[in-house]
Amino acid sequence: WNHPFGWVLDTTGIWASLYPGGPATSETGLVPLHHERFNIFAEEVDADGWTWYMVGPDQWVKQVFMTVIKPIARPEGVSGRWVAIDLYEQSLMAYEDDRPVFATLISSGLGGFDTNEGLFEVWARVASDGMSGATGAPDAYALENVPWVMYFDGGISMHGTYWHNLFGYRRSHGCVNLSISDARWVFQWTGDGAAENGEITTQVYVHSSGDYRPIN
Description:
L,D-transpeptidase catalytic domain-like; 15 strands
């Protein structure tokens, strides 16, 4: 992890800009694609306070179109395998002590279904589970065979998601949505990190690297 990197969110075909704060233009030769990964070589803040990321020569992308991954310091009392979930960036990073080993996009809770911040432990893992909620409400849901479920805050879990592909945006009723392949990786990795008595030892640190305001 020599420098930050990130994924492009859905830009609906907007060109990159030649300089921070500049207009989108075909002169850059770059149309960032949905969930395309870029290394970030520099960042600057424009006159309106928006951060811009340089992803190539004369190719700048505004922060609202990217999720950026930057390693964080290990929380006090945490060791071994742990997961950092950033609600502001909508990202997950897995660590082994101070070493990042995996990172990806997530979708956390919408306004009114906020994913709690704090330090938790994975207390149960199931390869597949059913989930339901909001019975009788317009947003009621009943999902079968949700894959790679890791409970860490009561009934809140990290899990695979087959009903949307908008990772990087808040979409859930409180759980941490992952792509199915990413959830499988994290599930297997947390299992490999179990103690000899079978107890799951992976801790989950949910935080916000920016001014996080739940949205609908």
